[in-house]
């Protein structure tokens, strides 16, 4: 009789386990991280068995979606401004934390263009269109405008600027040569998908405000998906994650 009871309990526990859906975490990710996040996702899933759904967009657009109720668990931004805004508005479980610093580059898919680190080429007649991410929603667009002003080129080239909704769209403008050149994240040009396409030059870090990138655990994740959300958030600051950031050209302190 005891053996029968034990078997019944075992079957009951097994059935209960089988009914439980696999753990999953939904992460909103700034577009500059679109390639690095693939490596982060793969490593995290291997380490934990928790699947990761990734939503890519500009930091500003993702913030707007979160404020409108999008059910994201973690937000990986391209700056500190938007995570701070979410924290101030009570959409975050606790204050955001910086995970890396991004770097800006000038990139072209045209073989006849020779890039210069001082950006003076942008003011010449050879360059008709310059792609940058929309500074209203994308931190790398803000950095690009700062660099143009630093080199006293902004007023001269303003009419040439073509705005992408995010770094992803900006990259498309560059790759399809809809723009002659464009500003993007160093993490993009170092990715396996892009490192053999076109040529790039780093923009002097003195020309723009440091792009400190922060992540935040969202209230939705803390309240409705606590275990998986916290594990992923903590993973972003792990040794293995830091090695991935370095591989993609981010500065990790």
Question: Summarize this, please?
Answer:
With 253 residues, the protein is an alpha/beta fold.
Give an overview in words.
By secondary structure, this protein is an alpha/beta fold. The protein has two domains: 2-101 and 211-247, D-Maltodextrin-Binding Protein, domain 2, CATH 3.40.190.10; 103-207, 3-Layer(aba) Sandwich (D-Maltodextrin-Binding Protein, domain 2). It is built from eleven helices and ten strands. It has helices at residues 2-19, 36-48, 59-67, 81-88, 139-150, 154-157, 167-175, 186-189, 219-224, 226-235, 239-247; strands at 24-30, 51-57, 74-76, 97-102, 104-108, 130-133, 161-164, 181-185, 199-202, 211-217. The strands form two sheets. Strands 2-1-3-10-4 form a five-stranded mixed sheet. The longest helix has 18 residues, at 2-19. It is elongated and about 55 Å long. The relative contact order is 0.21.
Any key phrases for this structure?
single chain; D-Maltodextrin-Binding Protein, domain 2; alpha/beta; 11 helices; 10 strands; five-stranded mixed β-sheet
Shape: elongated
Spans of at least 5 consecutive residues whose pLDDT stays below 50 are 4-11, 13-19
Can you tell me the CATH topology of the largest domain? D-Maltodextrin-Binding Protein, domain 2
Estimate nothing, just give the exact number of structural domains.
2
Main beta sheet: strand number and arrangement? 5 strands, mixed
Multimeric status of the protein:
single chain
Termini separation comes to 62 Å
What is the overall number of helices? 11
Order of helices and strands: HEHEHEHEEEHHEHEHEEHHH
Highest-level CATH class of the largest domain: Alpha Beta
User: Helix coverage percent of residues?
Assistant: 40-55%
Name the average pLDDT: 92
Kindly report the spatial arrangement of strands forming the biggest sheet.
Answer: 2-1-3-10-4
Estimate the strand proportion.
Answer: 15-25%
Radius of gyration: 22 Å
